[in-house]
Amino acid sequence: MTTIPAQLLHRRLAPLTRALILATALCAGPAFALTLSPPKPAAQAPAYAGIIGLEERLLAPQPWIAQLPDADKLILDRAAIAAQNARMRQLDTSIIDLRALPATLPEVLVREHIDGISRLPTRPLYDVQGKRVGADQLRAISDNLALERIPASRPIQYGLVVHRAALRAFPTALRVFSSQGDTDIDRFQESALFPGDAVAVLHESADGQWVFVASERYAAWMEKRFIGIGSAGQVFGYGAQGPYRVITAGKAFTAHTPEEPRVSNLQLEMGLRVPVLADWPAMEPVNGQQAHAGHVIQLPVRNDDGSLGFAPALLPRSQESSDDYLPLTQANLITQAFKFLGERYGWGHSYDTRDCSGFVSEIYRSFGVLLPRNTSAQAISPALNRVPFTDKDSKAKRSDAIAGLQVGDLVYIPGHVMMMLGDANGLTWVIHDTSGGSWYGADGKRVHASLNGVSVTPLQPMMASDTASYIDRITNIQRIRPQDTK
């Protein structure tokens, strides 16, 4: 591997730190100091399940697809998606080029990136029992960073993730919360990585149980037991050639196998592409099971010595998958989004689910489209067709933008993203993964709803505060379309 001079490396990796500092924007809910006049309650269609304008029929993809004039028209073909992804990797500073990392990393850069995310908050934190996290606990967590053990230069290691793994701000499984009784938003939870994700290992914790890793879209701490260390050739060669299966379900699971527990009941997320062992003999069992009712796939595993290995696994045909990424069409965007409907909201991909930015990322990943991890980066990505807004923009401009939304457009307010579905009952509708929501009822009182999951809601009535609507607080609209179109 070519060694990159430290100064050049710093320029390449500094955006990673900036992205990590912004990593708190994971859809806890909007917070934005904008005050406008409260909306006047309007006569609305009868509410279903308390949501203004909602009908039960709208909780399925078919009505939304049926109203589209050309639902199956390609938005981007495979070549255009490849070009879009290349543009994303070139222009968006939140995307990390693992192959560009040098063979050795200088101490200053490793420390900089850890410091960028592993900064203990000064506000009080509480554990799952509601007890305040003490100074001794926080000190032990900080000591486990082992910053004093970072060498002057460290050889880089590569690996593949072998099991869905949490990415944490600190090398600890301790869940911490801002208030007693609220145990949904773990302030140390950042994101998650999935089987087959490539990472670069930058550092190890004092207890030897955690590693600080950089993946293409994020860098944080993960448990060491969920990674197999291999050569660059092994890591970047995994899945480089087909045939493949692409997971098109919200989540899928490999077949149970007591013979090979490392690939038994393994959760695979929407958009994961795994290689198929097409030459597997028809009558040879896969981990004790004949393969005709499944696809024989190859998955990375961690050997006893921590090294990377590979093992065959069965992906049952009952688990939705495709032989390639799905065609990027409006119909498929809607269909894929509804596969998450009702799933519990998971801050930073907690609960083996996902948050708002993960929700839209994984929808688009089923088409092979790369998006940044967090709303903060997605919303301003220069690689997409961005329509920005400021607090000086008029209601008319915002209303015109809402009227011009297309299926699949991503609408951002501070800390949150929604995907446009279509129009119904005189309203514009979105599907989004949200921890809450509010609107004014017919009686003029503000309704607070614990949506706490993937939900279908109208956009116009949604309120971010007593006086500001979601539309008032839109910061950006992003569109995945050919670059010469709007």
UniProtKB/TrEMBL annotation:
UniProt keyword 4Fe-4S present: no
InterPro entries: NLP_P60_dom, P60_peptidase_YkfC, Papain-like_cys_pep_sf, SH3b1_dom
Gene Ontology MF terms: cysteine-type peptidase activity
Start and end residues of each NlpC/P60 domain: 327-481
Signal peptide range in chain numbering: 1-33
Keyword line: Hydrolase, Protease, Signal, Thiol protease
Gene Ontology terms describing biological process: proteolysis
Recorded superkingdom: Bacteria
UniProt record similarity statement: Belongs to the peptidase C40 family.
Name this polypeptide is given: NlpC-P60 family protein
Species in which this protein is naturally found: Stenotrophomonas pictorum JCM 9942
Classification lineage: Bacteria, Pseudomonadati, Pseudomonadota, Gammaproteobacteria, Lysobacterales
